[in-house]
Amino acid sequence: MNALVKVIAAVATGFLFAGTVGAQTLPGSGKTIRYAQDDSLGGNYVVAQITSQALKKLGYDVRLSTMDTTLFFQAVAQGDMDLATDVTLPQREPGFRAIAQQATVVGDGMIIGGGINGYLVDRKTALAHNITNLEQMKDPKIAGLFGRDGKAEMISCDPAWSCGVVVDYQLDKFGLKQTVSPVRGKYEALMADVITKVQNGKPAFYYAWSPSWMTNALKPGTDVVWLPTPQDALPPNIPNRGTALVNGVVGCAGGANPCRMAMGSWNYDTVANKAFLAANPAVKALIEQIRFPLATWSEWEGVISKDGGSVSVVKKLSDAWIASNQSQFDQWVATASKAH
């Protein structure tokens, strides 16, 4: 009887030890990741949830916070935040350069092929007045269609966003300051008015990007059209990653292909604290694998714009993606767990 008890005790101890070792082999065991997401809601929130789930599979405790990218840059440089997966580059390049000694870009961006951004007008007005490029806004008669007294009102970016700097620079560079007045405020609220205008058949002129909820609420080629810019032009401190000419842009005014956008393709890039990354090679290996097709982003953005960006909607989208792509998700985790 004593011998049997000893055997059972030994087996139990063995299982306990094995479980402890198994837990210890997870690269994130006992570690917390301070993960930031931008305060601009979109498919990036779904990606944050998917990435968080993968990090948890690696053993990490994930603390997700929402903050403006400018604040994130300060926090990650100081070591108060570890990473974010939705830093828009090259738009945020100047801010990133200021912290490049403390932080680094990981991977090739979360959008396969990158995203686009530029200027749009409602399709009805564009067709009625043959508006096929941004330069036509120099004409007070054309500009006045989108405002009054020969001057257009164009919805620009939220004051906290870097894209407004690009817009202001280009309006000056393209000779449009006399006929185009950029309006900056809470972007979501301003765009809600734009959507109502277009739905009521009224002229609208604004700056936007894709993938985003705006290009799902107002579809290029159906409701609105992209206006090609006359030339590549970016502020000196914002690098142009290749030409602004983009092939296959759906809804480019006049059917132009390639379509010259406001800048070359952009992406949601991951920025992480260098010291954190060096101590967590599994995180680096994971992030380097995670990317999603533009069509997937557009689907997420469409659902969010229709059903709202509540926590439950975002979680439903992330859970659905994982369930439909379980083998890929598991492969990401398995590969990352082997990183040293």
Automatic annotation (TrEMBL):
Residues 1-23 form the signal peptide. InterPro entries: ABC_Gly_betaine_transp_sub-bd (IPR007210). Residues 39-321 form the ABC-type glycine betaine transport system substrate-binding domain. Keywords: Signal. The keyword Signal applies. Pfam families: OpuAC. NCBIfam families: PRK11119.1. This is Glycine betaine/L-proline ABC transporter substrate-binding protein ProX. It comes from Paraburkholderia youngii. The lineage of its organism: Bacteria, Pseudomonadati, Pseudomonadota, Betaproteobacteria, Burkholderiales.
